Amino acid sequence: MASEFDLIARYFTRAAPAGLLGVGDDCALFPVPPGEQVATSTDLLLEGRHFFPDVDPKALGHKALAVNLSDLAAMGARPIGCVLGLALPRLDEAWLAAFAEGFHALAQVHGCPLIGGDTTRSVHDLAISVTVFGAVPADAALRRDGARADDDIWVSGELGAADVAYRLLDGQDPADAARLAATRGALE
Q1: CA-to-CA dists, residue 50 to 63, 104, 135, 167, angstroms
Q2: How far apart, in whole angstroms, are the C-alpha atoms of residue 180 and residue 184?
Q3: Is the pLDDT reported for residue 187 higher than 60?
Q4: Going by CATH, does the domain composed of 4-137 fall within 3.30.1330.10?
C-alpha cells in the first residue's frame, strides 16, 4: 500500500506559483499584498451527510473546493491558495485520481493552488476538509454586518431545491412529479 507521502506526491503535489511555498513542507507560506487582509474559510464535507457514497469523485473534488471559493467571493476576496484534509476509509487510487482531477481543475480556473494539507486513514466514512485563503483590500470585505435596509439581495437558483433534492434522493421524502420537477436544477 502506498504511504501518505506517496499519495500526496502522486495526486496532490503541483508546482506552487512564484512567492508561495506549497505542498511538501511543514507549513505553506504565502504573501499578503500590501494594504490587503487575509480572508479564510473552512468547510468540512462528510460522506452520508454532505454527499452520497456513490458520488462521482471528480464532481466531489470540484464541490469540495467550490463551497469554499463561494465563501471568498461572498466576502469580495480573491483566492490565494488552499489546503486540503482527507480522511480516507480505504485506498482507491482511481477514486483519488478523479477527485484530484476535479479539485485541481477548479483550483486552476480560479487561481487557488493547493499549497498544503493532510491525509489520514479513517475508520469509518470519507471526510474532506478544505480551507481557502484569499486577499481583500483592507476595510473592503463584504461583511454580513454591512447589510442595510433597502439593500438589494441577489440569489441564483432555487432556494431550498438542493435540500429537497437530497431528501428525495435519500428516501427521507416520498417522490412525486411536482416536487421532482421543482428540484430538477438541483438534481442535474
Answers
A1: 10, 20, 28, 11
A2: 6
A3: no
A4: yes
Residue 15, C-alpha cell as written in the block: 508546482
DSSP category for residue 51: B
This prediction's pTM:
0.77
* pLDDT tens-digit map of 173-183: 877 767 666 65
Q: According to DSSP H, which parts of the chain are helical? A: 4-7, 57-75, 93-109, 161-169, 177-182, 184-187
pLDDT (tens digit per residue) in 12-32: 666 776 676 566 666 777 788
Kindly calculate the radius of gyration of the chain based on its CA atoms and give it in whole angstroms: 19
* Phi, psi (rounded to 5 degrees) for 88: -105, 125
Instruction: Tell me how far apart the alpha carbons of residues 85 and 125 are, in angstroms, rounded to a whole number.
Output: 14
What is the distance between the terminal CA atoms of the chain, rounded to a whole angstrom? 36
Where are the domains positioned within the chain?
A: 4-137, 154-187
